[in-house]
Amino acid sequence: MIYLQITLRISKNNRPSAAEVYQRYKAPFLNTVAGAKSKALLVREEDVQVLHGFDTTDQAHAYLTSDLFVKDVADGLKPLLSADPEIRIYQSF
């Protein structure tokens, strides 16, 4: 399994709006993105993380350039961010 982890710096006041963006695009992600296996919202005191599961690294990279991510998710989150997102891709064994 490949994991795409996106860490977002979002103030506590903006987290409900960020959760709305997550909920709005979770089903389209799982239903339309090639290789998509899972999507989870992880909330910590210092940040919010979205963990996406894929079959392959190429599919994770392709999602980052897709219209769903660029035009919908990223544009929806942009006004809520306190800093640029941190993006990492991991492989589990």
TrEMBL record:
This is ABM domain-containing protein.
